[in-house]
Amino acid sequence: MGRRLPGRRLFDLAYAATTAAATVTGALGHRRAAALTKPLPMLLLAGRVAAGARGRDAVDTAGLAGALAFSMAGDRLMYLEEFETEPVAKDRYLRLGASLFAGAQLSYIATMWRAGARPSARQLLPRVGLLGESAAVLTRHRPALLPVLGTYGNMLATMSATASAMSDPQPRLRIGGVAFLLSDLVIINRRHLITDPRLRMAGEAWVLGSYFAAQYLLIGGLAERLHRR
C-alpha cells in the first residue's frame, strides 16, 4: 500500500490540475486552449483504467473503457457545439453529443448492474422529475431536440439512480451520479435562460467542473469496487 499512495496522490494532483485548466479555458471561451485541455482529464482516467485492468474481469474493464470512450467522443461533439455559431449545426452537434453520452450512460449502467446495483423507483423517479425541468425548457425553446435529449435524460437519470443502488455502500458513486445529473441540468438552462455573460461563464465553469468531478468519482468508485470483487 505504501508504494501505491504516492502514485495515487500524483494522479489526483494531475487530475485536479488538468480539470482546472479545462474548466477555466472552457469557461473563458478560449477555443484553441479548450481543445487542447478538455481531453486531458479523461485521458488520465483512461490510463488509470488500463493500469488496473489485470486486477479485474475483462468485461468490467470493457464497460469502463466504453464509458470513457463514449464520453470522450461526446466531449468532442459538445466542444464543437459550444463554439458553433450556426443554429442548425449547433443543434446537430448537440444531438450527436447526447447520443454518444447515452452510450456512456449505458456502459456505466451495465457495469454497475454486473457489480450488483439494482435501482428502485424511489431512487429513479426524483431524478427523472428533476430533469423534467430541462425537458420543459426544451419544449419552450427547442422542441425538435426533445426526442433525443429526453431519451438521453432518462438514461442519465437511470445511471444516477443505479450509482446509488450498489450492494455495498459507495458514496463516491452516489455523489458522482448526482454530480453528472446536476452538470447536465445546467447545460440547457445556461443556454436558454441565462443572458448575463458573467452568469453564463459561471454556468459553464460549473458544467465542466462538476462533469469532470463526476467522471473521477464514477470511474474511481467503480474501479475500486470491481478490483475488490
TrEMBL record:
List, alphabetically, the InterPro entries matched: TMEM86B-like
Membrane topology annotation: Multi-pass membrane protein
Q: Which UniProt keywords apply?
A: Membrane, Transmembrane, Transmembrane helix
Kindly list the GO CC terms recorded for this protein.
membrane
Does the entry feature the keyword Ubl conjugation, yes or no? no
Looking at the record's lineage, which domain of life comes first?
Answer: Bacteria
The protein's predominant localisation is: membrane
Would the keyword Transmembrane turn up in this protein's UniProt record? yes
UniProt family annotation:
Belongs to the TMEM86 family.
Output this protein's name: Lysoplasmalogenase
Query: Organism, per UniProt?
Result: Gordonia amicalis
Q: What is the lineage of its organism?
A: Bacteria, Bacillati, Actinomycetota, Actinomycetes, Mycobacteriales
